[in-house]
Amino acid sequence: MSSIEIDYKLDKLHEECGVFGLYKNDDDIDIVALTHDGLYGLQHRGQESVGITVIDNEEPYSVKDLGIVSTVFNSQNLSKLPNGKISVGHVRYTSSDYLDRAATQPLVMRYIEGSLALANNGAITNFPEIRNMLEQGGSIFQSNSHAEVIGFLISTHIIETKNIEEAILKTMLDLKGAYSMVISSPRKLIGLRDPHGFKPLCLGKLKNSYIISSESCAIESIGGTFIRDVEPGEMIVIDENGLKSYSCSKKKTTSLCLFEYVYVARPDSVIDGVNVNLARKKAGEIMYRENPVEADIVCGVPDSGLDAAQGYAAASGITYTTAFLKNKYIGRTPQGVGNDKKERLLNMRLNVLKNVVEGKRVVIIDDSIVRGNTSAHIVKILKNAGAKEVHMRISSPEFVHPCYFGLDLPESEDMISNQYSVEELKNKIGADSLAFLSIEGLHSIAEGCKIGLCDGCFTGVYHADKPKMKFVDRFAKKINKI
Predict the structure, then answer these.
(1) Residue 356 belongs to a domain with what CATH number?
(2) Which of 11, 58, 300, 474 could form a disulfide with 309 if both were Cys (CB 3.0 to 4.6 A apart)?
């Protein structure tokens, strides 16, 4: 297996983004510091760009760049941001082959009443049609960002309605697909979630100040208190008069992405009534009931496999232990030199504790298999460390269909489960046995979820419109030719 080219970015799944907003009602709150810390809490949702916009005296001030929170922000550039009234923050992951610096969010756009700062998480499935319509009307775009298109739509409706709330509600009716957004106008903080509820969004409070965040973990990480989830199709508006809630429309079928519970969300978050940590442990318990095996130890692939491994161990009575040490200073995007840099970097990322696995029958739990190369590498290094047997268990079903709503998945033909049966895949990755969680088991881990669930990447059944057109980024094509 040593000849396999391992591309960690392609072989693991990524969420598109994380959003954060704060409306300050307490003079002793440092809005810049808290937004910075809140983005740390959402860093797992995107590591390729980060930004903060603060509204002070109705004017926007921004610091943003490519990179992660710890590398982009420092005392020097954060000191340029005023301790204003409203903040919007964003962390981004992009599925593009190149990084569009102009798409770094929050996007700040001028409109007839002042400025909008927008931070978006999701994928608008009718984005190509809307952008084409706007371009035909004379709009000029600076990026390939869905947020920029949304901003243009909002400004168009503001001309009609003369009201930011009505303009955003009209925009929500125009959009199809997945979005959870935080928007600031000169005097208001606004949070909105698409009518299907594909992406999480929640509301919190710190003293008398309000917080809107992709996940509850970011609210609690800055000392705030989680209040509730934003409902599918809901728009929350916070201003000097307090909080108001509006609804654009009610969908009969809601569709929170089930993979939030398996991999995307941080385990200390609660999403639509379900504790992520408990959901992952339950996945491990169900996995053992569906696919038991005799073994000496159970371990998980850091980080999202750890909770499921604990659940598997609890249900089976097999000893749970740590078999891997993860180097947390290695980023998700491969760097380095040499033809074998990707495999070397994966070796640096995970080290096996040889004394733990040597001579043992090992059950290893991971969250998914996309292309299979990382799984093959994990089996290989366990056996090289002396594991007698390696039984791989995956806490989700096989990926066989694309995602159109913000989870970065390859085309169907590139998914390894479309190329091999489970038995063939077991042999390809070198495991002694391999099993996936059933689709019924996956739904069971989210028991008690307040809204419906999307499993389209596993079943091919989607509860929202798929894209009709493919967006061709002419700027990206031009860049790639240079």
Answers:
(1) 3.40.50.2020
(2) 300
